[in-house]
Write a structure and sequence with these properties.
Largest sheet: 8 strands, antiparallel
Radius of gyration: 26 Å
Strand order of the largest sheet: 4-7-8-1-2-3-6-5
Shape: globular
Helix content: under 10%
Order of helices and strands: HEEEEHEEEEEEEEEEEE
Mean pLDDT: 85
Low-confidence stretches: 1-13, 15-33
CATH class of the largest domain: Mainly Beta
Length: 275
């Protein structure tokens, strides 16, 4: 009887230990196979996403307007982005301290050709970057041509099925002249844009007349292309493309009002004024 009791006690202890192991991250733990946050809601495939960073010196090529291509496969997410040039030599998924450790693995790098659509093309570096979660900042480190490492926070958001970054940039309006309300965000607020403004649509492409409340803007950049003023005196006036209606899009204005010229990034939201 004493021997049978000992065997029973050992069996109970063994069973209890197994339950504890499964409940604390053992082979039965679901955490080991959890997909990145957001990936579970996305089917395998490609998506156009917004890729934003915490610094103006590290961002997607202007022509791509903060867009990259997200690939989802078996619950893993990777985003490919084309940068401004070849000045960022390597990227690392993690901190700059870890990037400098022996055996650190750099992210895959590609040479991407940006076709600006006006006959000019440019080769830039592109990178495939893991995405641990959508809509949440995470750390990526970079090294440039001066051999210094820097850490930055990046965020991937707004997935739309497809693999064409520039899809949907046409304006679905008949050819003609329209009045639009223009809302500007960014900058110091010392200069504004006249609203309403005139927009001309031709063959699905829209152009707006931008009149600043300042004569000090000597060029603007929209979708990677530089635009000069269309007037020679008075407040600065430009004719620039409207990339979309009812949603903000980024533009850059260069002002000479300070001690030296400064490029300032703005967001414009254009809304059609109905008759």
């Amino acid at each position: 009887m004493r021997k049978r009791g000992l065997i029973f006690l050992l069996a109970v202890l063994t069973a209890f230990a197994g339950l504890a192991l499964n409940g604390c991250g053992g082979s039965g733990s679901s955490d080991e196979t959890a997909a990145p946050e957001g990936a579970a809601a996305l089917e395998d495939g490609t998506y156009v996403v917004t890729f934003t960073t915490d610094h103006s010196m590290f961002h997607v090529n202007d022509y791509n307007n903060d867009k990259g291509i997200l690939t989802v496969k078996d619950g893993e997410m990777t985003v490919h982005v084309s940068l401004q040039s070849k000045k960022i030599v390597n990227l690392f998924y993690g901190s700059k301290e870890d990037a400098q450790k022996e055996g650190a693995q750099m992210l895959p790098r590609t040479v991407d050709t940006i076709d600006y659509g006006d006959g000019y093309t440019e080769e830039v570096y592109g990178f495939d970057i893991p995405v641990p979660a959508l809509d949440e900042p995470y750390e990526v480190s970079l090294i440039g041509t001066h051999d210094n490492w820097y850490s930055h926070m990046v965020t991937v958001s707004d997935p739309v099925p497809g693999d064409d970054i520039h899809a949907g940039t046409e304006i679905d309006l008949e050819d003609g002249t329209y009045q639009i309300e223009v809302v500007k965000e960014g900058g110091t607020g010392k200069a504004d844009i006249e609203s309403p403004a005139e927009m001309v649509v031709k063959d699905g492409k829209a152009t707006m007349t931008v009149k600043w409340s300042s004569p000090n803007y000597d060029y603007m950049i929209v979708d990677g292309e530089k635009y000069e003023p269309v007037n020679e005196s008075g407040d600065s006036v430009f004719e620039i493309p409207v990339l979309k209606l009812n949603e903000p899009f980024k533009v850059i204005g260069d002002t000479t009002a300070m001690s030296e010229p400064h490029e300032i990034e703005y967001e414009l939201t254009c809304t059609l004024i109905e008759d």
